């Protein structure tokens, strides 16, 4: 029976190859591919690519080699990787991005970035990009292409099928009661339309990927004897089983006061989620963490933060390995780190009107794919149209 790593050199046992090469960063693997045709073939093997992703993800969680992807800039957008150390030093400058400055980053997963651009047409254009290996693929156009009143998108991974998926939820108008849902599969390279949940979109924030599930804030209109109110909750979409699931918020957050705001971010330390509650006029901020993912009773208010000086409360972007918070200041749009207990601030000299920050794992994903944008663009037989 042929090995999973086909054409393996007889002088280099497969288990030793995996043990050694899965630990190497992508830059080192690129050099190995130039040394030997056999190594080149093996490194491009889908099984090795998956094994390398898995191993690198474990390394990121267990040691100090945690990386952040940063997009920022004023006029020209820049992309870089930074080490999660005291100085937030630059690990690499990324030069390859397939979009111009008008795109948004939906999310990152296993080294892949999902980018979206709908500036110039009624259609949302999506691209999956691995900037480390300088490779990208343009996705087929979604099934539902009208300009939405509100849109939320989430990108993640299905480990059971070794597949990357993109969930898109849209609402046509402010008075529409139902949302429309469609799902893209990289493995099948097509979209399909799904039955929508009964909940509405709270905001157009991009979804948060944790534990093979994308999460966002949703709400349900509740009729209390003729008086309507909105009940907030977290809605998730399981990428493995393609099903929606409900996660109840703490009682305090289910009915927010006027002019308050909430959103979800990952809490990587516990492989869970956190909810940021911004008070009225962004004067204060409470951070709630689900200490055991899926267990509603473990919601805990971990921190209460005040403003930095006179400007409104900065937006919380994520958590660092040491527990500090990554923030984007409100007025001068600087990227800073804040100790939530001592309130000490570290400034990184990074500033821009468009800032995106996320944890990042270098990978070889897309290396084994033969990219044919013309084929992708012309593929119009979208799966799921029959399910309308």
From TrEMBL:
Query: Out of the domains of life, which is the source?
Result: Eukaryota
Per the UniProt record, which residue ranges are transmembrane? none
Start and end of every F-box domain? 12-52
Classification via InterPro entries: F-box-assoc_dom_typ1, F-box-assoc_interact_dom, F-box-like_dom_sf, F-box_dom, SCF_F-box_component
Pfam families attached to this UniProt entry = F-box, FBA_1
Q: What protein name applies here?
A: F-box domain-containing protein
Name the source organism.
Answer: Gossypium lobatum
Q: What is the lineage of its organism?
A: Eukaryota, Viridiplantae, Streptophyta, Embryophyta, Tracheophyta
């Amino acid at each position: 029976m042929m090995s999973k790593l086909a054409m393996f050199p007889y002088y280099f046992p497969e288990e030793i190859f995996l043990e050694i090469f899965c630990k190497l960063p992508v830059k080192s693997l690129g050099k190995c591919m130039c040394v030997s045709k056999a190594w080149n073939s093996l490194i491009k093997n889908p099984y090795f690519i998956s094994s390398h992703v898995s191993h690198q993800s474990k390394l990121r969680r267990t040691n100090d080699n945690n990386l952040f992807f940063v997009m920022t800039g004023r006029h020209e957008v820049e992309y870089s990787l930074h080490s999660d150390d005291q100085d937030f030093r630059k690990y690499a400058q990324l030069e390859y991005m397939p979009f111009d400055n008008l795109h948004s980053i939906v999310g990152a997963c296993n080294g892949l970035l999902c980018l979206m651009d709908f500036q110039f047409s009624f259609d949302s254009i999506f691209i999956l990009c691995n900037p480390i290996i300088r490779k990208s693929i343009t996705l087929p156009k979604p099934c539902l292409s009208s300009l939405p009143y509100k849109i939320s998108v989430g990108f993640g991974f299905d480990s059971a099928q070794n597949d990357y998926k993109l969930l898109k939820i849209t609402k046509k108008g402010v008075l529409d009661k139902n949302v429309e849902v469609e799902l893209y599969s990289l493995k099948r390279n097509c979209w399909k339309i799904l039955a929508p949940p009964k909940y509405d979109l709270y905001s157009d924030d991009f979804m948060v990927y944790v534990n093979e599930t994308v999460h966002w804030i949703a709400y349900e209109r509740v009729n209390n004897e003729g008086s309507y109110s909105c009940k907030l909750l977290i809605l998730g979409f399981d990428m493995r089983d393609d099903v929606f699931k409900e996660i109840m918020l703490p009682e305090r957050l289910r009915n927010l006061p006027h002019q308050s705001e909430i959103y979800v971010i990952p809490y990587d330390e516990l492989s869970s989620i956190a909810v940021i509650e911004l008070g009225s006029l962004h004067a204060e901020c409470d951070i709630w963490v689900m200490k055991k993912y899926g267990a509603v009773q473990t919601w805990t208010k971990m921190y209460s933060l005040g403003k930095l000086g006179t400007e409104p409360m900065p937006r919380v972007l994520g958590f660092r390995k040491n527990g500090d918070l990554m923030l984007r200041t409100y007025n001068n749009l600087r990227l800073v780190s804040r100790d939530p207990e001592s309130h000490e601030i570290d400034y990184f000299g990074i500033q821009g009107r468009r800032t995106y920050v996320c944890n990042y794992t270098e990978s070889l994903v897309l290396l084994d794919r033969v990219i044919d944008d013309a084929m992708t663009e012309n593929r119009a037989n979208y799966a799921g149209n029959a399910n309308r």
